[in-house]
Amino acid sequence: AETRNSGDHATRGWPRPHVVLLPSAGMGHLVPFTRLATTLYSCHGCDVSVVTALPTVSSAEARHLAALFAVFPAIRRLELHLASFDVPDFAGADPFYVRYEALRRSASLLAPLLAGASASALVADIALASVVIPVAKELRLPCYIFFTASATMFAFLAYLPTYLDANAGGGQAIGDVDVPSVCRVPMSSVPQALHDPDDIFTRQFIANGRSLASADGLLVNAFDALEPEAVAALRQGTVAAGLPPVFAVGPLSPASFPAGEAARDSGDYLPWLDAQPARSVVYVSFGSRKALPRDQLSELAAGLDASGHRFLWVVKGTVVDRDDASELSDLLGEGFLQRVHGRGLVTMAWVRQEEVLKHPAVGLFISHCGWNSVTEAASSGVPVLSWPRFADQRVNAGVVARAGFGAWVERWSWEGEDGVVSAEDIAEKVKMLMADEAVRKTAASVREAAARAVATGGTSYRSLAEFVQRCSSGS
Ligand code: UDP
Ligand code: UDP
Fold it and tell me: pTM score, two decimals?
């Protein structure tokens, strides 16, 4: 962790920049922020601070932050104390979105933290953009916005205000959205919350979209070769007028945190994977923050069983990990667990997904297509059977399908829609993809392209170096 590349600014005699990072909430945002933190620190010679707001929503975030600061003691922690606010109008709202709102309402409290930090630049999460940019401007601190998901979704977000002004004035519902020069996002792929103009997420999303032009620059965890149209449309301003420079810096590389995450991780799946033949295992995970309904869980279990393939399945019972008191046998039944014993490994614990995806035994990833999962599959060259459920996941599944390193059955269930995908459907699709040589080849070429992008001299490497250069020269 302590080996550092001193960065271009050192050879050019610029001062070492101090970059302050401000993530929002949920592992899907925290993971790419910590990857950005460690890459800026280790590969580009920056001083780095991370703003944290405690307690975190999930215990996964608490463990991840503890591990970051333990393994990288030089990365400083700035603690933000959240302003208290009334939540009654948010009863039943997604706890991660409620945290975005709490952070947004605490934006003014950032001023003293930032003023005391002698920062060169602030990099804030997209969920906080519209409230944080004015605070940074007041301090004359350059403010960059980091979009932790796909460039395609970023293009959608940047374009949405224009779409609404033209088509849906007066709070009408969102229909199919043709993102210029990028792709059509059909109404059925628009994140669920955005269909309700009064949802807190919708209000934040639109305000953030409108604020992008006032940022000093935009970072996205994407790379040119995977989403060429979307990256170009953001850079050329096709999706919104007056956007600042765009830096496509992905897929940001993982930093391993052995100390922290291992504590909660039995790790027994790694020796099990070692004992399986190459590309024989289907890895199944729907991310860190959503559980499948019970009836869908049983069909998935039966489908994996019927596919005849080996599998490693990470099961979640609740949205927030702290609330999860369920037992595997309650969720899936003792009979199932006994029947698949040896052939299928099912766990409710946190697994080190990047290691799992890099393991030679893994041949397919059934994924909800959270963007981090997609980038990890791309970097590992593992084909994806996409089963998006929520938020930006259908847009991301479209990226996977267009790039050809996976498949997406568009009629498969989406949160808020009725219908359960049957065991037969699941088994058939798994068998097909496990036997698909073409998809495996494409996945291998995507892996090569991802590696080239982040290697010294690659498109993402150069983009991040240019961002660092701007930070150290104060622009
Ligand atoms: N993750 C993991 N182990 C788990 C579950 C998730 O390492 O058991 C990681 C995964 O590798 C990814 C992140 O948590 O980096 C989840 O982010 P993603 O965008 O894929 O989905 P989200 O959880 O936000 O829906
Ligand atoms: N979990 C998570 N992130 C973590 C650890 C756990 O999302 O870092 C989820 C996990 O998938 C499970 C639940 O939280 O659904 C309980 O996990 P824990 O590791 O606490 O399970 P235990 O070891 O107590 O069975």
Answer: 0.92
